[in-house]
Amino acid sequence: MIRIENLSKTYDGTTWAVKNLSLTLQAGEFVVVLGKSGSGKSTLIRLINRLVEPSAGRIFLGEDEVTQASPARLRRLRRRMGMVFQEYNLVHRLSVLTNTLAGALGEVSPAAGLLNRFPAAAVERACEHLNRLQLGDKIHQRADRLSGGQKQRVGIARALMQEPELLLADEPVSSLDPATSRVILDILKRVNRERGVTVLCNLHLPALAREYGTRVLGLRAGRLVYDGPPENLGTEEVNEIYGAAD
Ligand SMILES: Nc1ncnc2c1ncn2[C@@H]1O[C@H](COP(=O)(O)OP(=O)(O)O)[C@@H](O)[C@H]1O
Ligand SMILES: [Mg+2]
Fold this sequence. Notes:
This protein is α/β, with parallel strands linked by helices. The protein has two domains: 26-55 and 69-80 and 164-246, P-loop containing nucleotide triphosphate hydrolases (Rossmann fold, 3-Layer(aba) Sandwich); 90-163, no CATH class. It has nine helices and ten strands. It has helices at residues 41-48, 71-79, 96-101, 110-114, 120-132, 148-160, 178-195, 206-212, 235-242, and strands at residues 2-9, 18-25, 30-34, 56-61, 64-65, 81-85, 166-170, 198-203, 215-220, 223-228. The protein is globular. The site of magnesium ion (MG) has 3 residues, from α1.
């Protein structure tokens, strides 16, 4: 579903944020990317949806090459990839419903989007997602009045509005307490199982990677140092990923 070939990224021309990465993600996998701060996890996600341009290498979503796509084609490819962010990226003063509908902006004209005019079917779909995520009683509440866990559920509902094939989640639980983190990861797991959405999720805790991943990737200084099942992620592998000396 995603094929990455010899992908590299340098921002400054001297250090590698991602270095010569090649891998294939199968449809339906729940892939957890582990690595300490600065190891290249966010860069990898931003390369996949081309929020940053690679310095070298190619990325394919299915048969379509992301790295060569024209702006119009890239817009269509991006609609197939939902994003979930650490800091939720909601518009604070807007309602839960309006924030969720932002995920359907690709379906309406820019003018309609500016006026927050969405087709009734999109509104209905948004409400369904919000109900399923236990936010049915919050749809008219301002986003900034929600708890962190509720905000992240809105973030997930917004991503699901795109009906994505792939969910890219960049440290979606790093701002949340342990119990709420599990609630959010359980939701991502359910979306993965029930809807067959492939998930690529950056985390920094090995324990959560073992619990939720069907596959774990370990990044260290932009290089892939582990690629395997969670049950093979032992102390040695964790040291390889997190080891003090780069
Ligand atoms: N926009 C940027 N400009 C310059 N350097 C960046 C930028 N984003 C990330 N980096 C550098 O790239 C490396 C990888 O960063 P990042 O992908 O954010 O890692 P992680 O998400 O694992 O913390 C780090 O050395 C970081 O300083
Ligand atoms: Mg990051």
